[in-house]
Specification:
Blueprint (H helix, E strand, L loop, with lengths): L2 H16 L2 E12 L6 E4 L2 E7 L2 E8 L3 E5 L4 E2 L3 E4 L10 E11 L7 E19 L2 E16 L4 E9 L18 H16 L6 H7 L7 H7 L1 H7 L12 E5 L5 E5 L19 H14 L4 E5 L5 E3 L2
Antiparallel strand pairs: 1-2, 1-7, 1-9, 2-5, 3-4, 3-8, 5-6, 8-11, 9-10, 12-13, 13-14, 14-15
Helix pairs in contact: 5-6
Amino acid sequence: MSRKILTALMLLWPLFVSAGVVNVEFKFTPYTGDLKQDQVQTVPGKAQVYINNMLYAEQDVQADTVPVMFDEREIAASVWVTMNSAGPILRKGKNSIRIEFQPSDAKAPYNAQLSWASVMDQSTETETSPGTSVSTNQSGEGMDSKKGPGKIVFERDFVADFATDRPWHHYPAVTSLSDADKQQIAAAIAVRAAGFKPGFVDSYKMLEGQDGLDLAAIKKSKCLDSAYAVGIRVAAPAIEQMDFSLTGNPEVVVGRKGGALFDTGSPELFGKIKGDENQMCAGMVMSVTYPPRLSFVRSPAGAWEVVY
C-alpha cells in the first residue's frame, strides 16, 4: 500500500467510524401490470403493519396508477413505514416487521413488492465510471416480491440501534392475564376517558413529552374547549367489549371488539368546530390521547401502566 493511499485512508477514517444508521424504511405496494413499463396499477385492499408482533398501523390501499422508478424498478409506495417515527414500540437492536395485505377481491391475481433500506447519517459516493460518481445516504437496500391471489404476508427482521432503549422493554413477556389484571386495565381506561372534561388537565398531561407537539400552542388555541363545546365526549367500553391481546412482549394491547377503543361520537361533530386549524388541532390531540388501541405493561410493583 502506498503512503498516499494510507494517508488518505487515515484522513477518511473518522468519517467511516462516525457513519451510522438513523432510520430504516420499508415500502410496500400491491400491484398489477408490468414492471418493465413506467406505470403499474395498485390493488385495492387493507394492509396491516405489525412491529415486533404488535399491530402498529392499518391502512386502506386504493386502486391507482403509480410510477415505476429507477433501474431497480421500485414502485411508488402504497404503504411507507419509517422506523425513526415508530415510537416506543421499536426496540434498540433487533426488531421485526410483518405486513399483511388482504385484497378486496380475494380471487383476482396480483403481485406485491416490499423494499427496504437503511438511512445513514451521512452520504457516501461511489464512482460509477471515470469522472462520474453517485452519492447516497442509503445502505442495505433490498427487495422482495410475492404473488397473489388472496392474502399476502411479508416478514423481515431488522436492526434499529438508533431506537431509544426504555426500561420496560426489558420487563418479562406477559403470558397470561387474570380477571384482576383485566379489571385493573379496564379501570385505567375508564379513568382516561373521564379525563376529557373542561380544564383538560389530564389531556394536557398525556401530551407532555410527545415529540412534534407544541403543548403551549395547543393550550393557547383552546381547541379541546372547542371540541367539547360542539358535543364531543369520550366513552370507554365495558370490560366485556374490550379485546386483550398478548403479544409475546411486555406489552398487552387493548382495543375494542369490532372498533376503536374509545368512542368519541359522530365524526360529523368535528366538522362543527369553527376554524380549520382548530379542527386539525382537536383531531390531532384526540388521536394521540384517545387512540384506537392502548398498550399496557406490568411494572415490577405489579401495577399496569400505559406506555403508548
